[in-house]
Amino acid sequence: MIENVGKPERIMDIYRSYEPEHAAQAERQLARLYGLQKDTKVNGAVYQTAISIFSAGYIFMQLPSTLLMTKLRPSIFLKIIAQGRLAADAGSDDVLGEESISIWTGIAWAAKDYRVWLFAGLQMATTASISYSHFFPTLIQQIGIKNRTTVLLLTSPPYLVAFCWALGLAWMADKHQTRSIPASISCIVSMIGTVLLVALPHLYWARYAFTFLVCIGTFGIYSTTYTWLSSTIPRPPIKRAAAIGIANTLANLASLFANYFWLDEYGPTFQVSWGILLAFQAFAMGCILTLRFMLQRKNRKFERLAREINLNHESAVQALEEDAQRALKNNFRYVT
């Protein structure tokens, strides 16, 4: 009962925290559609630089803000309850002593873990792949639709379908306790859509249909990978927070350079732009498959240790790395 107190309110707080950022993105799309670029007589890379400036401010606070949440209130007792629950879920039995670990130590631990950088690269590539959404109204205008209201209405269906896809995929991933398979499926779907957009530059309504594939694919990756990161690096909390902060920082860094994928000179088909997105999607796929391979190899190692080492031999258990000890004592395994 305690763990559910205020849960809807906390979830809504999270949603509200994202509203200003995404509202600003929508306003930039509308401003371009209604002639901002033409009125200001700013074109090409200069316009993209101006857009990128909006993203620069909050990128610098991604890592510090995530880390500070592990050190500051809302409340001491709620923090202890939450830590106990996370410890039970992650197969840990000693987390309260981790409060003394410094922020810089957590950052150093996260920076030394190759898995953190694989997740960060995955998030960066996914964010770069969704950069087309900043210019979606402009892309729809290339179909030949001039009515601005109609253009705005046509931007909605891909996101509605993507929402349903991401929700269903997240449910399936949780039910079957897998992350790499749904993420890989989504990545393949987005790559298929991007290839078709590059290959068929003049079938305008078909290109609009292909954007559905790109949209559901990229948001499908988002729906599984953040929980995958948290379950892969469950403790200590300061390291997990640093890992999430690093992943968020690199992901938002993509919003700085990805705007340059959509320069005016690449229009009206933007084949070069879609080709760049395809490269990032391939990189994301590589990160997913590498993580799956590495974590499966770790799980096989845990299975072997469980057969070979007797838990009563304390010295042999203590000689193992922390993850291996949790695997032996609490049957911990990585979600792949």
TrEMBL record:
Membrane topology term: Multi-pass membrane protein
Subcellular location: Membrane
Transmembrane residue ranges: 116-136, 156-173, 185-204, 210-229, 241-262, 274-295
Key word Protease present: no
A Gene Ontology molecular function term of the record: transmembrane transporter activity
GO cellular component, one term: membrane
Swiss-Prot/TrEMBL keywords: Membrane, Transmembrane, Transmembrane helix, Transport
The protein's name in its UniProt record: MFS general substrate transporter
Organism of origin: Aureobasidium uvarum
